[in-house]
Amino acid sequence: MADDLWVREVHPGSGRSAVVDGAGDSVWLYLTEPGGAGITADCWLFNRVPAPAEVSAYRAEGQPPPAVAGVAGEGAYRPEALTPERVRLRWSADGESVAALVDGEPTGFIAAGRPRGYSRHLRAESAWGAPLDLALYRATFEPGPPEA
């Protein structure tokens, strides 16, 4: 298996933490409550193993499960080591939403108030989240100039 991955950052305004955790067979983005460690939302980013048919063993062991074959899309399996230097977190201005960029590409994001994220490597909405919504990504992380 690839090396463990851990990236953490705190937004100075909202006090929320974002964590990219790749210690198991999948890599996830988590967003915490303001000033705390309780996870309020998650976003599956990709698998470090081929997509399994089912994940009951992961759930029984309390491990974050890799996305199953029915929802994992192209590029979902990334067995190579991913270093923290290749991962960047991008925050919305208010710190209520966060995105994970891998090698400069939006891989997944959590939008404010939504418990599940949007992932580049999902092909269908499921327990792992929803497919990447580029319009919502742009509206959340690339706001235009204020209207006059």
Structure summarized in a few sentences:
This protein is mostly beta strands. It is 9% helix and 31% strand. A hairpin with a 7-residue loop joins strand 7 (105-110) and strand 8 (118-119).
SSE layout:
Layout: E1 6-10, E2 17-21, E3 26-32, E4 39-47, H1 56-60, E5 87-91, E6 98-102, E7 105-110, E8 118-119, E9 130-131, H2 134-141
Parallel strand pairs: 8-9
Antiparallel strand pairs: 1-2, 2-3, 3-4, 5-6, 6-7, 7-8
Structural features, described:
With 148 residues, the protein is mostly beta strands. It has one domain (6-140). The chain is 9% helix and 31% strand. It is built from two helices and nine strands; from the N terminus they run E-E-E-E-H-E-E-E-E-E-H. The protein has helices at 56-60, 134-141; strands spanning 6-10, 17-21, 26-32, 39-47, 87-91, 98-102, 105-110, 118-119, 130-131. It has a five-stranded mixed β-sheet, with no helix packed on it. A hairpin with a 2-residue loop joins strand 6 (98-102) and strand 7 (105-110). The longest helix is centred in the last third of the chain and has 8 residues, at 134-141. The model has no long low-confidence stretch (mean pLDDT 92).
